[in-house]
Design a protein that fits this description.
- The complex is a heterodimer of chains A (266) and B (111).
- Chain A contains 10 helices and 10 strands.
- Chain A is an alpha/beta fold.
- In chain A, strand 9 and strand 10 form a beta hairpin.
- Chain A starts with 6 loop residues before the first strand and ends with a helix.
- Chain B has one domain: 2-Layer Sandwich (Transcription Regulator spoIIAA).
- In chain B, 42% of the residues lie in helices and 31% in strands.
- Chain B has 4 helices and 5 strands; from the N terminus they run E-E-H-E-H-E-H-E-H.
- The longest helix of chain B is centred in the middle third of the chain and has 16 residues.
- Chain B is globular.
- Classes of the chains: A alpha/beta (266), B alpha/beta (111).
């Protein structure tokens, strides 16, 4: 049963580094219960790193991350593990375990984290496959699935434990336009029926505009826009306009800095 | 946990309530299957159910399947809009016998 707190994800001034390289530079972001927040941005903007922080997979250099009101940077491993049972994740590319069947991938968390009997687990597994239109695929191996089927199987696994928060990394990327639209529609149907809060990372503008309640745009580790679909069109920011109009950024080269990079000389 | 149960002729009526989740669905499942094993039709009154998760839905499916294979009837009464949406997502709304009221269900099941 959903809890009463309104903010499901609250990120305050998150700073993150890989080595000495700063990836996230003071991120502030809130996702409200029942909301679909789409995070957009170019490659290297920090989207996937932000996702890893929300899941507690990376430790921040500084800042706070509260999920369901709990500061995840201070949770023990067992507390974090319990919290993650409320979060469903579909990674880019599906990330299904290749040595077990589709059904075993979906019901793995049920077998690991619940005491349900095997009949109930089997029915839940088939229910989830029905929800994503993969009925009859339970005994197939992941290698036998098409790209679109893999994405749907990943969605089925993400909702296996009836999560309250679902995190999707590029759910419709790399698919043909019709299959991509089908995935978007499926995400919307699942959100409504399962009362989900969703955070989606995507490059796909059409997908973002279709499924988002709000959009956050990341650029060089910072949130340069956060607002509704309507508000993003009104933004004067050049990067956002480039994103909306699919025009490449025309970065001006600073001559001395460019030569230093090429020659390696300081 | 024991849910309220009554008998009307050849039909058991079990009133589920509150949250039907990982903890409460196993006893609900057992109670439903026990009623069916007594060779009674079964009506599950869902009017006091605040939330039902996949394990609860799966228990309903199992009860429905048991009834079907034993020539019994299994109906759900007064499901909430939230439950209906979950059933629709899995297309179970086309499978289950759904009734607005107990009287309506009893008339069909016992008729």
């Amino acid at each position: 049963m959903p809890e009463l707190s309104e903010s499901v994800v609250e990120i305050d001034n998150l700073v993150s580094h890989y080595g000495s390289r700063k990836i996230l530079d003071g991120i502030n972001l809130q996702v409200q219960r029942g909301e679909t927040m789409v995070i957009m941005g170019g490659s290297g903007a920090g989207k996937s790193t932000l996702l890893r922080h929300i899941l507690g997979l990376n430790l921040p250099s500084s800042g706070n991350i509260r999920i369901f009101g709990k500061e995840i940077t201070r949770l023990s491993n067992s507390e974090l593990s319990k919290l993650r049972t409320k979060i469903g994740v579909a990674f880019q590319g599906g990330a299904l375990l290749t040595s077990i069947t589709v059904a075993e991938n979906i019901n793995l968390p049920l077998r690991e984290h619940t005491k349900l009997n095997s009949e109930t687990i089997e029915i839940i597994t088939r229910l989830k496959l029905e929800m994503v239109n993969l009925s009859g695929c339970d005994r197939m191996m992941p290698s036998e699935l098409s790209g679109g089927m893999l994405k749907r199987a990943a969605l089925a696994r993400a909702v296996a434990m009836d999560p309250q928060l679902m995190i999707l990394d590029e759910p419709s990327s790399g698919l043909d336009p019709i299959t991509a639209v089908e995935i978007d529609e499926l995400v919307l149907r699942m959100k409504r029926a399962l009362n989900l809060t969703i955070v989606i990372i995507t490059h796909e503008l059409q997908s973002a505009l279709k499924i988002a309640d709000r959009i956050a745009v990341l650029c060089q580790g910072q949130v340069i826009f956060s607002g509704t679909k309507e508000q993003i069109h009104e933004s004067n920011n050049q990067y956002i306009q480039n994103l909306l109009n699919r025009t490449p950024s025309n970065n001006q080269i600073e001559g001395n800095e460019y030569l230093r990079r090429l020659t390696g000389l300081q | 946990m024991e849910y309220k149960s009554t008998i009307e002729g050849n039909c058991s009526i079990i009133a589920l309530s509150g949250e039907i989740d990982l903890q409460s669905s196993p006893p609900a499942r057992e109670q439903m299957l026990n009623a069916l094993k007594q060779n009674h039709h079964l009506m599950v009154d869902m009017s006091a159910v605040e939330y039902i998760d996949s394990s609860g839905i799966a228990s309903l499916v199992e009860g429905f399947q048991f009834a079907k294979t034993h020539d019994l009837k299994f109906g759900l009464v007064n499901i909430s809009q939230a439950t209906r949406q979950v059933l629709e997502l899995a297309r179970l709304d086309q499978i289950f016998l759904l009734f607005e009221t107990l009287d309506e269900g009893l008339a069909v099941i016992q008729g």
